[in-house]
Design brief:
Among the domains are: 31 residues; 77 residues, Immunoglobulin-like (Sandwich). By secondary structure, the chain is an alpha+beta fold. The protein has a 4-stranded antiparallel β-sheet with strand order 1-2-7-6, with no helix packed on it. Strands 3-4-5 form a 3-stranded antiparallel β-sheet, with no helix packed on it. The longest helix is centred in the first third of the chain and has 25 residues. The radius of gyration is 29 Å and the shape is flat.
Length: 156
Amino acid sequence: MNNLIRWNRPTMPAWPTFGRLTNLRDEIDRLFESPLAELARTSQLFSGWTPPIDVYEDKDNLYVKLELPGMKKEDIELSLHDGSLSISGERKSENKYEGADMHRSERFFGRFQRTVSLPTPVATDKVKAQYKEGILSVTLPKTEEAKPKQIEVNVG
């Protein structure tokens, strides 16, 4: 006798779940991080960092803000020269991981320098800087010549 087999639509293989993709990514990260971990600890190439900065203005002042978490105000230097503000400093590592296996290190330590060209002239003798809760705020008052002026139009 002939057996009849009912036709079924072929099934598509399921897409890998995000969990499986995440595991693959973790394995690739681990593969590349392992050989470079020792090099990253000893090389000056990886020691620099760049703190994020905001620069904005209103009609009277320019404002500069930097995120410098974990730094002491004594380790921050500001200078104003030829229309540029330079901010530099050094964040020191507080821990030495001797005798421990490092699994991940994403915090940056070492020297940094940021220089910002100022879009308008500022009154250098009135510049103020404040460092609070890891945020450096610099207020740079504009010179009178740089402030916008309202000009009255006379009808003749």
